[in-house]
C-alpha cells in the first residue's frame, strides 16, 4: 500500500490518520481459498470411490483375493462366510414369512372381534328399544 502524507503542520491530523490506516492495512493477511462447490467435491469423492471399487472388481476378476486392509484371504474362508451369509439370509426370510403369517392371523382375529362387537351392539340396541317400548306401554297403562 502506498500512503501519501503531507509534511505540513496543517495536515498533521490527516497524516496521522493516514499512517494509522496504512499500518492497519499492512497487518491484514489474506488467505486465498479456492472456491470449491460442495456438489463438485461430492462428485469427485464418489468418482474416487467408484474407481477404487472398479479396481477391486478387476482384481477379483483376475483371480486375486484382496482381503480387508490389503491382507489376503483364502478361498475357504470366503466360501464359509458366503455360506454363512446365505444361511442368515434364509433364516431372516423364514422369520419374515412367519411374521407375515402372524399378521394375517391377527388381522383375521381382529375382523372376527369387530364382527362380534357389531353383533353385540345390535343386540344391545334392540334390547334397549324393547325396554323403551315396554316402559312406554307401562306409562300408558297407568295413565
From TrEMBL:
GO biological process: microtubule-based movement; mitotic spindle organization; spindle elongation
Gene Ontology, cellular component aspect: microtubule associated complex
Keyword Nucleotide-binding included in the entry's annotation: yes
SUPFAM superfamilies linked: P-loop containing nucleoside triphosphate hydrolases
Subcellular location, record wording: Cytoplasm, Cytoskeleton
Coiled coil spans: 43-102
Keywords tagged on the record: ATP-binding, Coiled coil, Cytoplasm, Cytoskeleton, Nucleotide-binding
A GO molecular-function descriptor: microtubule binding
Protein biosynthesis as UniProt keyword: no
Superkingdom of this protein's organism: Eukaryota
All residue ranges annotated as the Kinesin motor domain in the record: 1-28
Family: Belongs to the TRAFAC class myosin-kinesin ATPase superfamily. Kinesin family.
Protein name: Kinesin motor domain-containing protein
Organism expressing this protein natively: Anisakis simplex (Herring worm)
Amino acid at each position: 500500500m502506498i500512503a501519501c502524507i503531507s509534511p505540513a503542520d496543517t495536515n498533521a491530523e490527516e497524516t496521522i490518520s493516514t499512517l494509522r490506516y496504512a499500518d492497519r492495512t499492512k497487518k491484514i493477511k489474506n488467505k486465498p481459498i479456492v472456491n470449491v462447490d460442495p456438489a463438485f467435491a461430492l462428485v469427485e469423492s464418489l468418482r474416487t470411490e467408484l474407481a477404487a471399487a472398479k479396481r477391486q472388481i478387476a482384481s477379483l476378476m483376475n483371480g486375486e483375493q484382496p482381503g480387508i486392509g490389503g491382507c489376503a484371504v483364502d478361498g475357504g474362508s470366503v466360501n464359509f462366510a458366503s455360506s454363512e451369509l446365505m444361511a442368515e439370509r434364509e433364516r431372516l426370510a423364514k422369520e419374515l414369512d412367519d411374521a407375515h403369517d402372524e399378521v394375517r392371523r391377527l388381522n383375521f382375529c381382529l375382523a372376527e372381534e369387530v364382527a362380534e362387537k357389531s353383533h353385540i351392539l345390535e343386540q344391545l340396541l334392540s334390547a334397549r328399544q324393547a325396554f323403551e317400548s315396554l316402559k312406554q306401554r307401562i306409562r300408558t297403562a297407568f295413565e
